[in-house]
Structure formats: structure tokens, C-alpha cells
Amino acid sequence: MHLKTVLILLVLALATIFALVCVLLTRGRAPSTCQHQLLEQEDTDDGQSLVFADLTPEEMVQVVRYLQGNLRVPLVDASHAKPSDNCIASVDVQIPAKAEVLWFLDGGGAQPPREALAVLYFGNQPDPNVTEYVVGPLPTPAYHRDITMQKYGGKVPYHRRPTLAVEYKQVAEFLKAQVFPAAPSFMRQVMEYDGASLAALTSAPRGFQSGDRITWFVLFQNVSGFFVHPVGLEVLVDHSSLDISRWAVSRVFYNGQYYQDMVQLESAYVQGRIRVEKVRRAPRDGDFSSLKPRAPAAALFPLQYEPQGPRYSVRNNHVLFQAWSFAFGMSVNTGLRLFDIRHKGERVAYEISVQEAMSVYGSNCPGGMSTRYMDGSFGIGRYTSPLVRGIDCPYLATYLDVHYLAYSQVSRTSKSALCIFEQNLGSPLRRHYSNLQSLYYGGLVNSALVVRSIATVGNYDYVWDFIFYQSGAIEGKVQATGFTSSSFLHGDGLQYGNRVWEHTLGTIHTHSINYKVDLDVGGVKNSLVAHDMAFEVTRAPWNPEQQIERPRLTKKVLDTEDQAAFRLQSKMPRYIYFAANSKNKWGHQRGYRIQITSFSGDHVPEASSMERAISWARYQLAVTRRKEEEPTSTSIYNQNDPWTPTVAFADFINNETITNEDLVAWITAGFLHIPHSEDIPNTVTVGNSIGFLLRPYNYYDLDPSIYSQDGVFFTSEQDFTACEINPVACLPKAASCLPNFPPFTYDGFQNM
């Protein structure tokens, strides 16, 4: 080999080695950590939003101490109270009257006194009842006043009280100690009962008339996901007496047959007069109902991060995001709620809140066919569950604790039970690509702020979202997941659902969610206006012999509450909006439109003896005058006495004029759920999402998102790879950083 050739090969080898070293050094250099930038906008709230803030644990302690020392009656801790005891059932913040709050926020008035609302059960009295007290001022209470008569027009009878957790424990002990032992052979040989192998699930309401407290308890195998493991046994327990020793069994159901009690069931079994359906005993993990993944972990799913830090701020209970600001809170009964919602500094809504979540079931088993759950009575806020980072919300979301006092005289903390995050929805909010006349592209990423909580009420998990878009729109959305409820499959069961496992009937049911939306569009006084379309037939002006059918805008002002109450399945104007007394640049009344996303099942027939208690569900939308004496569409007392409802929403609609008044929209969204095999083990959120949108309608002179700093525009004549022309071109540099992922923690199994 010539020396020249050797030298050339040596130079090439050195060059190759040098290049490889450069590549390796470049790849080995770790990206820098993402640096957070300070928000350009300043939070000028100055603590005013605290007028809506939830009670702190310290304030709850003070309220309990005050009640214990000033009511002059013995109070037992609700966590172990008997029905015949007095106890504090719950303590929550008492939101001041709207006029007082607005005078404070807008008029320079004094801050309203901070007060609590305490619900007490008085079982140890000659006339047992439920009483509500306002306690204040906080943080050092000095007074209390009974508001029950003022709020409900009379006393709240004791039988209407929501069921305490301890009462369910007492029923479970009653079943174990007195009911099941009455049928020893049946329970041992058919149920394979060992004292702990069965779980009971309540139905509700409890009976057929006011005063009843008679509940069907459905028995399931006590395994993971027990809701889909029915064993065919259901027991009707009369627990209306305040003396637990007088509780009794009113009826027993097994595999399609009814019995007077467990003694009769045992006798029928021993004599061979019973058709036994032996259910294979499931392992503790539930087998088919287990949520343990059936596949090993593989490549990591996509993650979202903020290369320059969060673009929103959270201070106390106040959130600031671009043009949006609002206060948030968590009602122990109804869950997530927002107040003083402003866009570009102007209030568009005073309150947006969940009111109720209801499910109506069908079945050929007694527990299923009699179930109409009203989750507010159980406590949507109370059952708000700790969120799992990276699954329930993005990993880098802001997580906040929720404090509540319910069914105990000690406050509880649900860790990381509320999350706030900005989400890139992966699609444009708006865009246009021009290939006619001029060549350009203009667009805006759809990035929105989400406030979320998830309540697990029994078998269902409800994902509650409020979403704020750069276009000035607000979305209220709920997604349903969790376990479907079920009945034991027998007889004509397939008329009430689908078979989803060997002995499991996934029972048909409806979901109905009610919201309160107190819009203040351009001020407190609004009117309700409907726009829609109709085709009109006309002659072509340039050719009168020819006919044209053209859409025409229809307009109507809805003057009264009766006109503004739209039944569930009725036709509603497709554009319906709250109109202000001011106009935009183009002469139109400024407005916010209500747009509902719903595929509800049918409402309970109005002939039903309990329908008035849930009469809010008659309407997909009802707009009424706002009144302090009509703060909620329902009551926590309606669940256990729907036959004489404490609050009947139908009474709100009495044909009052709603022109130029302070108005409230009551929105009902829902869906029909016919469980199917894909609901095993768990119902998915896809397709089970409902809610509403509030959208500006001539509120602005043009789309407010055009002022977003996220906008992109470039022409064919510009260098669209330059950062100053196209900010997206900077992403390889601006976003090439490592986000700071905090260690994974979870406190959901603490403080149970």
C-alpha cells in the first residue's frame, strides 16, 4: 500500500473519530431545567375573593366549640351518634347575600361578616327535627340564629335527615348480628357467608310515603368492585325507629321470590322449596371486576409541561388566567362552585355551581327498581376524592387540598382533591390557510384553563370540570366513570338491561345533572332573548319567475318564567342568550349564549308521588328571577322524603316577568346509560360527557382571542422560520428544557 494512501485513510479515520466524539458530546449534554417566567399580569384581587372562601379547619373548630358551648343541649360526635342523639351533621360556609357581596366588591361597602352554616340533628328531643343555624362572625363566633323556618317555611322533620355514615354501620351490624343468623343454613350453604364476605349497598328513597325510613339493602360479594357481584339476596330494613333495638326486617328477596323475613326464607330453603342459583365465590381482587391492568407497562404515554412555567396564578381561592379571573369553592353537599367570574375585568357571571346529580334505575329486583339516587344528599363535596397525579389531572397541574366537616365533629382534609391546569387541547381554537388572492396562514392554539374535582359517590365517579377558553367561552362539563350498579340476573331481567357477567345484570338508568348559572351580562339586570331560523320562500329579484328558499333570522324576547321553561324533550331555540342593557359597536345587545350538550333519558312521569322533589329535571333549561330565598334547585332533605319535598323547583316557575331583571339559568344535562359488556370492569368517560357552554354573543366587537399572545400569522413572503415572525419556530430552543417533575405522592388512603 502506498504511503499516500495510508495517510489519506488515517486522516479519514481521525475525521470520523472526531465527528463521532462531537456527536456523542452533543447528545450527552443534558438540557437545562425549564425556567419559570413571572406573569406579566398582576393579581389585583387584594383578598376580596375571600368573601366566597371555604371555611378553614381552624374556623370549623371554632364553630363546633361555639355550638357545644352555647346550644345548651348535649351534642354527640356524629361519627358514633345513635338516631336518638343530638349531633352536628355538617358545617359549611354561609355565602352572604348577593347584594351585600356586590356592594363590597363593586360599591366600596364594608365586607359582609364571615359566617358558617351548621346543620344539626336533634334526635334527643320531644319533637326530633333537623335545624340549620347561621353562626358568626368568624373567626370568633359570638352569635347563632335559627334560619330553618325562614329558609324552608317550617321545621324540617327528623325523618328527612340525610343518612349518617354511622347509621349505615349500624344497619350493617343489625344485618350481621340479628338478620343473617335467622337463616343459618341458607347463609352458610348458599351465600357461603363467613361474617365478612358480603357487602350491602343502600337504595334510596326509603319507602313510599312521608315518614318512611324503610330501605332495601342489596347484598354483594365483598370483593374489589363489589358493585357488579350481586348474590341475589336483598333485605328490606325498617330503621325508622330512633331506638335501634326496634329495627326490623320488613321483607326479604332472593332470586325473584319475596319472603316475609329470613326465617321464612330459611324454612323454604330447608324444605327444598327455593330455586338456588349458586354464585361462584370470587377472589378478593374481584376477578373480572379488578382494575389491575391486564397488560405490562410499556412506552410512556404523552405528557404535557409548561416550558416557561404556569401561565396562571392561584392565590387563596382566586385564579387569574390571561383575561379571566374567578373565585372557587367546594360545597360539602353540591361540590365545585365558582363565583365572580370576570373576563377582561368585567363580570360575566356571579355564580356557576353544581346543584344535583341524580340517577334513576330500572330493574326487576326491588333494590334496583326503587333507586333514585340524589347525590347531593350523600354529599358531592364530601366525597370529593384525592386526585392521582398524571392520571386524574396532568402531572404538573396545581393541586389543592379540600377541607370539610360532615358526619363528624372533626374536620377532614381531602389531600390534592382539586386541580387547576392549562391544557393544550391539541387543536386550533381558530385558523385559516389562504391559497386565494394572498398566501398566508393565521391561527391560534386552543389552550384553555381547567378547574377540576372528582367525586366518588358510591359506585360512580363524576369528573367535574369548568373550562375557560381564550374566546371568552366557559364550559361546564361532567364525565361519568366508575362502576355501573347492577342487579342479580333472573326472570325477565333482560327487559331492564344487559347481561354483563354470569349472574350480573347491568341495569338501565338515567343520569341528570343540574347547574345553577347566575349570569350578569353587562350588569345585574338582563333579559332573555331567543334567536333561531326559519325558511322563507321568495321570488328571485333578478328573475321573478324563479323561487328561492332562504333561511331567515327569527327573534323573540321571552318575557316570563313560563316562556323560559323548556321541557326536557321539547324543542328549544338554538340560540338563547342573556341580553344586556348595553350594545356593542354594531348596535346589537351584548349577550352570553347558553348552549347545552345533553342526551337525556326520559324524566320520571309527573304523576309519580315523588316527582316534585326532582322537578328541576323536567326542564333542560329554566330561567327564573334570582331570589335569595331560592338559592338552590333542590334540598339535601328531598332524598329521604321526596313525597313532601322540602324544596320543589317547580314552585320557582310562577310566570313572573323576567325582562330587565336579575336572572338565573337552571340547566339540566343528562344521558341514558344502558350498561353493556364494555362497562366491565369499569365505565369509561368516552361518550359519557355532558354539560353546557356559555359563549359571548355580540358581547364583544370582535373575537377577543385575536388579542391572545399565542396567535400565529405569517405570509408567503415572510421568513416563517424566524422567531420574531413566527413564535412556533422558537419551540426547538424555547421548549428544549427539562420540566421539574416532583416525586409521585398520594394521600388518598389516609384520614379515611
Automatic annotation (TrEMBL):
<dbReference type="InterPro" id="IPR049948">
    <property type="entry name" value="Cu_Am_ox_TPQ-bd"/>
</dbReference>
<dbReference type="InterPro" id="IPR000269">
    <property type="entry name" value="Cu_amine_oxidase"/>
</dbReference>
<dbReference type="Pfam" id="PF01179">
    <property type="entry name" value="Cu_amine_oxid"/>
</dbReference>
<comment type="similarity">
    <text>Belongs to the copper/topaquinone oxidase family.</text>
</comment>
<dbReference type="InterPro" id="IPR015798">
    <property type="entry name" value="Cu_amine_oxidase_C"/>
</dbReference>
<dbReference type="GO" id="GO:0005886">
    <property type="term" value="C:plasma membrane"/>
</dbReference>
<keyword id="KW-0479">Metal-binding</keyword>
<dbReference type="GO" id="GO:0009308">
    <property type="term" value="P:amine metabolic process"/>
</dbReference>
<dbReference type="GO" id="GO:0005507">
    <property type="term" value="F:copper ion binding"/>
</dbReference>
<keyword id="KW-0801">TPQ</keyword>
<feature type="active site" description="Schiff-base intermediate with substrate; via topaquinone">
    <location>
        <position position="460"/>
    </location>
</feature>
<dbReference type="Pfam" id="PF02728">
    <property type="entry name" value="Cu_amine_oxidN3"/>
</dbReference>
<feature type="active site" description="Proton acceptor">
    <location>
        <position position="375"/>
    </location>
</feature>
<protein>
    <recommendedName>
        <fullName>Amine oxidase</fullName>
        <ecNumber>1.4.3.-</ecNumber>
    </recommendedName>
</protein>
<dbReference type="GO" id="GO:0048038">
    <property type="term" value="F:quinone binding"/>
</dbReference>
<feature type="signal peptide">
    <location>
        <begin position="1"/>
        <end position="19"/>
    </location>
</feature>
<dbReference type="Pfam" id="PF02727">
    <property type="entry name" value="Cu_amine_oxidN2"/>
</dbReference>
<feature type="modified residue" description="2',4',5'-topaquinone">
    <location>
        <position position="460"/>
    </location>
</feature>
<feature type="domain" description="Copper amine oxidase N2-terminal">
    <location>
        <begin position="75"/>
        <end position="143"/>
    </location>
</feature>
<dbReference type="InterPro" id="IPR036460">
    <property type="entry name" value="Cu_amine_oxidase_C_sf"/>
</dbReference>
<keyword id="KW-0732">Signal</keyword>
<dbReference type="GO" id="GO:0008131">
    <property type="term" value="F:primary methylamine oxidase activity"/>
</dbReference>
<feature type="domain" description="Copper amine oxidase N3-terminal">
    <location>
        <begin position="161"/>
        <end position="256"/>
    </location>
</feature>
<dbReference type="InterPro" id="IPR015800">
    <property type="entry name" value="Cu_amine_oxidase_N2"/>
</dbReference>
<dbReference type="InterPro" id="IPR015802">
    <property type="entry name" value="Cu_amine_oxidase_N3"/>
</dbReference>
<feature type="domain" description="Copper amine oxidase catalytic">
    <location>
        <begin position="304"/>
        <end position="706"/>
    </location>
</feature>
<keyword id="KW-0186">Copper</keyword>
<dbReference type="InterPro" id="IPR016182">
    <property type="entry name" value="Cu_amine_oxidase_N-reg"/>
</dbReference>
<keyword id="KW-0560">Oxidoreductase</keyword>
<dbReference type="InterPro" id="IPR049947">
    <property type="entry name" value="Cu_Am_Ox_Cu-bd"/>
</dbReference>
